[in-house]
Amino acid sequence: MSVLVFADSSEGKFKKTALEVVSYGKKVAEQLGTNVVALTINASDSSELYTYGAEKVVSVSNDALQTFNAKQYAAVITEVAKAQNATVVVVDSSTDGLYLAPIIAVNLEAGCVSNVVDVPSSTSPFTVKRKTFSNKAFSNTVISTEHKVIVVAKNSYGVHENVVTGSTETFEATIVESGVKSEKIERVTGKVTIADAEIVVSAGRGLKGPENWGMVEELASVLGAATACSKPVSDLGWRPHAEHVGQTGKPVASNLYIAIGISGAIQHLAGINASKVKVVINTDPEAPFFKAADYGIVGDAFEVVPKLIEKLKAFKAS
Ligand SMILES: Cc1cc2nc3c(=O)[nH]c(=O)nc-3n(C[C@H](O)[C@H](O)[C@H](O)COP(=O)(O)OP(=O)(O)OC[C@H]3O[C@@H](n4cnc5c(N)ncnc54)[C@H](O)[C@@H]3O)c2cc1C
């Protein structure tokens, strides 16, 4: 028996979520009295995963897997899970992870639970806690099948160092037909995406118009952050719809979320409340966002943001 985690990588480098699922898998393996095995696909160096508890890394390299294809990747993960006698398979909650989990679950006839925020509270019955109702509530879910597939919610368990002496073995995976009529041929943005971002700088209607987004872009660039916006801003065409966050937009689970000129309506908060630290800049001290904020600045964004940029630049230069 083992716990298999899929350590996803991009251009050969591990994503932070990969380190989180390895940390998570290590803990679950300890609870079950077994080992965690990390699977990598076309990653250049797997040794980083030993730092987070992966005693064993199974490395698959194949040109046919250069582009993500859920069916092909899920087949590889299933094959490795069977070869490693894994009863628990863990993936991250990225778009790719959410594609993979149900296919792996069908392949293994496993129970599958997404949005999981913690290691099992009990391994018999196997009980996991998951977020529900737009992250406003939690539920405990029992997975009663022999095999289990868990999707770990981003930034919920965290990355934990647990240095072990690991080893890597290569695996010749069977490549199945992709079976799809579309494929990703190009990545058109080099910017940090909202899903992967550690820091998100988001702005709302308080910025008055699209011509004022320069300072938001600049603040994001200084911080290495992704940019986001409230729904009205994308509805008005000030920013692309891809940046709209909230209940009807993208969810955000960053370490830091900076909200500029956003009122903090419940539909907005529903999508961002998984973020760890929230900083709010708003002229109105009664803005509802302040109740959800960890740090608040009552002030005019057009004065506060340029000062913040200046200070951050000076700090980085020092
Ligand atoms: C079914 C439904 C789904 C929805 N889904 C979403 C969603 O997913 N995401 C979302 O964001 N909204 C969503 N909404 C809309 C939501 O209810 C709010 O209307 C919206 O979030 C408000 O956007 P805002 O805060 O940018 O604008 P406003 O409500 O207009 O707030 C602007 C804020 O900027 C402040 N401000 C003004 N000038 C300045 C300044 N110079 N400096 C600093 N602050 C300033 C104001 O005090 C105010 O608080 C949804 C609504 C419905 C009905």
TrEMBL record:
<dbReference type="InterPro" id="IPR029035">
    <property type="entry name" value="DHS-like_NAD/FAD-binding_dom"/>
</dbReference>
<keyword id="KW-0813">Transport</keyword>
<dbReference type="Pfam" id="PF01012">
    <property type="entry name" value="ETF"/>
</dbReference>
<feature type="domain" description="Electron transfer flavoprotein alpha/beta-subunit N-terminal">
    <location>
        <begin position="3"/>
        <end position="188"/>
    </location>
</feature>
<dbReference type="InterPro" id="IPR014731">
    <property type="entry name" value="ETF_asu_C"/>
</dbReference>
<dbReference type="InterPro" id="IPR014729">
    <property type="entry name" value="Rossmann-like_a/b/a_fold"/>
</dbReference>
<comment type="similarity">
    <text>Belongs to the ETF alpha-subunit/FixB family.</text>
</comment>
<dbReference type="InterPro" id="IPR014730">
    <property type="entry name" value="ETF_a/b_N"/>
</dbReference>
<protein>
    <submittedName>
        <fullName>Electron transfer flavoprotein subunit alpha</fullName>
    </submittedName>
</protein>
<dbReference type="InterPro" id="IPR001308">
    <property type="entry name" value="ETF_a/FixB"/>
</dbReference>
<dbReference type="Pfam" id="PF00766">
    <property type="entry name" value="ETF_alpha"/>
</dbReference>
<keyword id="KW-0249">Electron transport</keyword>
